[in-house]
Amino acid sequence: RLTSMAMASTRRQVLSLFRKLLRTQKTVFERDVELQSRVSLEIRTKFKERANAPEHQIEDFIKEGEETDAFLRENVVQAEYNPQTGNYTQKLRPDHAWEGDITGRPLEEDRQPNK
Hints:
Layout: H1 4-28, H2 33-49, H3 55-75, E1 79-82, E2 87-90
Antiparallel strand pairs: 1-2
């Protein structure tokens, strides 16, 4: 059984994660108010469903939430269609930066010269 201090710490972690996910969805879906609303509702629903979860599941839920947050920040890019040009534009954020190209290979300048 968790002590009062451990429970308070866990509660702070859960609330911090809840706020973090809400901020992330606002950033990731900043140009789509309808999607923001739906994702926000989904976050709230998940946290309510798990409000009385057994103690042994809380750490797993926190890990799942952190992974979800990272996935949203690093992998979701919104594109907008420009009817004048027929092209899509996207706004990349610093969270989208990664080492190497999309294949996972290092960029040319990062490669070591052959010896």
